[in-house]
Amino acid sequence: MLGFLKKPIVVTAEINMNLVALTVMGLMSRLWGLSYPRAVVFDEVYYGQFVSLYMKRIFFVDDSGPPFGHMLLALGGYLGGFDGNFLWNRIGAEYNMNVPVWSLRLLPALAGTLCVPLAYQILVELQFSHCAALGAALLILLENSLITQSRFMLLESILIFFILLAVLSYLKFYSLQKHSSFSGSWWFWLLLTGVACSCAVGVKYMGLFTYMLLLAIAGLHFWHMIGDQSFSNISLICHFLARGLALIIIPMAMYLSFFYVHLTLLYRSGPHDQIMTSAFQASLEGGLARITQGQPLEVAYGSQITLRNVLGKPMQCWLHSHTNTYPIRYENGRGSSHQQQVTCYPFKDVNNWWIVKDPGMQQLVVSNPPRPVRHGHIVQLVHGITTRYLNTHDVAAPLSPHSQEVSCYIDYNISMPAQNLWRVEIVNRESDTDIWKTILSEVRFVHVNTSAVLKAVNFHFQLSGASLPEWGYRQLEVVGEKLSKGYHQSMVWNVEEHRYGKSQEQKEREVELHSPTQMDISKNLSFMAKFTELQWKILTLKNEDTEHKYSSSALDWITMDTNIAYWLHPTSGAQIHLLGNVVTWASANVAALVYLCLSLWYLLRRRRKIYDIPEDAWQLWVSAGGISVGGWAVNYLPFFLMEKTLFLYHYLPALTFQILLIPIVLQHLSDHLCRSLLLKNMFSALIVAWFSSVYFVYRTFSPVTYGEPSLSVSELKDLRWKDSWNILIRKQ
């Protein structure tokens, strides 16, 4: 029974020494001197702010993309014991000893390292030789731009890692398709494809390009399966469901999980709160939550409220009035009603308070029990401090003459009657009997007499200057919008601060308006509500694009006519630039051109029933091109349609795919065009010479890739191979 103990237990393993060597070389190239320079390098000034906010659990919104990449950078800070206390205010600022520089830069460097063996495995999985795969990996290893980008607290190397992992996982899954469907390894690689795709999208939305490419390839492969009679209908349905689960459902679930973790970590109020709705702000610890915690939920007649415009762009603002009146005549000669101004004010102020009044009663306090206001009810809004009624009439607004002026009514006894009745319409109601709720309800105020809708003219503030002149204290214009088909967010308001009024006397009421509410009712948003709002803000929030010194166009990238100075030593000539390996970039362009020309030639010849290469070689050529050329195209061409500030590093994912194409084309030329032994030997010699030039360029530009050693003025001038490159040279 114990006979198995008579022999030793032996475990055997196959180790690909190529992969081991490539990984070690990758670690050496990416991790060597990782803490140098101990100063803020280019976009570290941008991402570092978010890392600090994660460390302090303070909420933020970054319109550049989802939060997964930021969380990975923050993980590096957490592992290094970073407390978030550093002022990320300028490039080149020296890090203090509190900042774990090595730890913050570690994850991008490891991701950049792993791209080297991934490139090797992708070429092997595409059925190319180990020599070609080794060439692809070495080209990634010696690409200066990829080294630079992976050695700092930046996201591109992490993005490229997940993109390559997704491609490799799908290729391994596909190779198991014919003989090992639904096996453990089949499921592993299929699921890993979906996970890697979701991680790529979670790092940057650029990951969507490769995700869409892989979905298209998977769809094409499944289309071919449908035509394969060896698959039964049940089998096809199972394959379809498996792919749907792994490539669509799981990535969506993971994408949601990134936001769940993000929102769980960032529970404190911060500087980005103001662009979120009042409900979202109130769900955060501190800030608005301290003011609104425990407010009465239901708005009733007699409620004292502040009304915040839902749009919140370009800045949040509240419905406001003050004792000043509109000028009798404006600068352009048009007249006004000379009544009390109503504006939208971007700061909290006692003049933002209004009282909800029942038109049929005189009291301005909440009855017992309170009478809630519902959708469709008619109300009057009384300004808390001046006790004048919100009014609109057929008088042109000061800056928007096609809209009606909104004022607080002053009776001048000049046959201009008050028109101060407003119908409450709850936009996000579930039924027509919904009660108007604090923070949660989004409402429109429709003027009963004219059907105009109360609107804050702030959505084009920066473009058209919708702030009032000096007489209006540069506050934002509020109008009655006559053309109200549908609704814009600038016409929607929500109650932010709310208390039940208790004082009928004006002086007592003014004291009441100045005092905070203290009640004990909390309002929490669900995760999906917070996710939906945050996702919408990320997609629609656009920072004002400004021309950057190192911004470039997509056309500049192919020939590398641009560079980016990442860091300059304060006293010496040491500097770091995002510059690629010129030989590699040129070779990648030539490889793409050769691939397209040869493919067109083969297609024309095949159309004439002339087959220059065997069918399996043709299928290999097409599949490899679908990955490499397709990956380059989907990661590059969309930038021609983007209206945003572009930089050279945006090209790196596309470049990575293009680099994979170089050994693919070289092996194809060697196998199918070099027919004689002499030609093959000459071609091999050319490849060795070419690769030597790649290494030579890598070594030549290493000082500006790693930032050391410091170069003299003449040496720096020698590195300016193109006039368009901005190599920094200090004046003597």
UniProtKB/TrEMBL annotation:
Entry-linked Pfam families: MIR (PF02815), PMT (PF02366), PMT_4TMC (PF16192)
Catalytically driven reaction(s): a di-trans,poly-cis-dolichyl beta-D-mannosyl phosphate + L-seryl-[protein] = 3-O-(alpha-D-mannosyl)-L-seryl-[protein] + a di-trans,poly-cis-dolichyl phosphate + H(+); a di-trans,poly-cis-dolichyl beta-D-mannosyl phosphate + L-threonyl-[protein] = 3-O-(alpha-D-mannosyl)-L-threonyl-[protein] + a di-trans,poly-cis-dolichyl phosphate + H(+)
EC number from the UniProt entry: 2.4.1.109
GO MF annotations in UniProt: dolichyl-phosphate-mannose-protein mannosyltransferase activity
Principal location listed in the UniProt entry: endoplasmic reticulum
Mode of membrane association: Multi-pass membrane protein
Gene3D superfamilies: 2.80.10.50
PROSITE patterns per record: MIR (PS50919)
Enzyme class: transferase
Localization: Endoplasmic reticulum membrane
Keywords: Endoplasmic reticulum, Glycosyltransferase, Membrane, Repeat, Transferase, Transmembrane, Transmembrane helix
Cellular component terms (Gene Ontology): endoplasmic reticulum membrane
Membrane-spanning residues: 9-28, 68-88, 100-120, 154-174, 186-219, 240-261, 582-604, 616-634, 646-666, 678-698
Family: Belongs to the glycosyltransferase 39 family.
Protein name: Protein O-mannosyl-transferase 1
Protein species of origin: Halcyon senegalensis
Gene name in the database record: Pomt1
